[in-house]
Structure formats: structure tokens, C-alpha cells
From TrEMBL:
Membrane topology: Multi-pass membrane protein
Species per Swiss-Prot/TrEMBL record: Occallatibacter riparius
GO cellular component assignments: plasma membrane
Record protein name field: GlsB/YeaQ/YmgE family stress response membrane protein
Places the protein is found: Cell membrane
Keywords: Cell membrane, Membrane, Transmembrane, Transmembrane helix
InterPro entries: Transgly_assoc (IPR007341)
Taxonomy, superkingdom: Bacteria
Residue ranges crossing the lipid bilayer per the database entry: 6-23, 35-54, 60-82
Family in the record: Belongs to the UPF0410 family.
Predominant place of localization: membrane
Amino acid sequence: MGHGIIAWIIIGVIAGWITGKLMKGSGFGFIMDMVVGLIGALIGGWVSSFFGFGTTGSHGMIGSIVIAVIGAVLLTLIVRLITGNRAANL
């Protein structure tokens, strides 16, 4: 069963906030944290389905948040590598 738009916003906010804490940063602000979390959910869902674990929406709310955080961390790493901010990678 998939999530509605409100659930995706909640997942995005939580995943963006957790990613900001994991990546030794203060986050990007409420809106950008949500965007990073939502894009992270897309990336995490793609990686998850690529490895045969199913899509983001098929794991419930907690599973979706975990997958979104993994995707958001990957996104943050890629952005930091591209922008040259390598000192704050981990």
C-alpha cells in the first residue's frame, strides 16, 4: 500500500532532519530538508528496488523513512563531492 501526500511530506521532513544530523551538518532548513528527504526517498527507493528489497512505499512508514534516509545520505554525499565540500563528508 502506498503513502499519501501528507505521509510523504512527513517522511521527507524526518528523513531530511535525520540526514542533517548524520552528516554532521545543521541541515539545510525546513523546506530544503524536506526536499532532500523526498529526493532521498526516490533515490533510496530506486536503490532498494534495484537490489530486490522492494519499493519505498512497500515497507510501511518506518521502512520508508529508513530507505529515504539512506537515499538522502547518498544524495548529500554526491552533492558534497560535486561541490568540493569534502571536509564535511562524514
